[in-house]
């Protein structure tokens, strides 16, 4: 499902609305809400909105569990840390218990971090073959990566682990990431993509041939849930579907 908005502010607002609706629904039905958050810059505005009125007070934060889709191998105070970004924009503004924050630790050996995070997830999703997040937020890089599933990397082949460390040759750095099957078992996957720099790659991902080694975002296909793309006009401007419409 693809939704196109006038600008990035409207994309952020739509993401905040979906976050609140999913959270309220999950808490009503199951007593808790699990969300895997995206890093990078695109979701920052959505996090700011979720952390402010009228969004914040619609959610009982004591029942919310915040997870992360991926993390960079840096300490939590580092400017590149996804945890730091999410802390500044969201966590620091919320009445949420610290035990509900499921951080991926960036400052230890990434293989140990991946193991520890998978253990945390297996504890939360007790007895499940795969995690079933109520909501996953994702971004897309202009090379077609999502979470830290980068083109041509080992993690793309992983069909059993929930979490893995992934060496990213072009960054000369490892990252820790949820695998595609772990993401794909979510109830609702929300991609946020904005800006003209991503329009050509977005067209390839959404309308080009299936080539996930080169375009890892194509691996994201919900098992039973839904995948929704929230785009602004600039990101969407090369889509045929849109031109035809
Ligand atoms: C990260 C991510 C990553 C991100 C894309 C898009 O840690 O960087 O989670 O997959 O979503 O790189 O990033 P931007 O929103 O900054 O363009």
Give structural notes.
The chain has about 240 residues and is an alpha/beta fold. It is built from eight helices and nine strands. It has helices at about 10-30, 45-50, 80-90, 110-125, 180-185, 200-205, 235, 240-245; strands spanning about 1-5, 35, 65-70, 70, 135-140, 165-170, 175-180, 190-195, 225-230. The chain has a six-stranded parallel β-sheet. α6 (about 200-205) links the parallel β8 and β9 (about 225-230). α1 (about 10-30) packs across α2 (about 45-50). The longest helix is centred in the N-terminal third of the chain and has 23 residues, at about 10-30. It is globular. It starts with a strand and ends with a helix. The model has no long low-confidence stretch (mean pLDDT about 95). The structure holds 6-phosphogluconic acid. 6-phosphogluconic acid binds near residues 38, 39, 40 and 145.
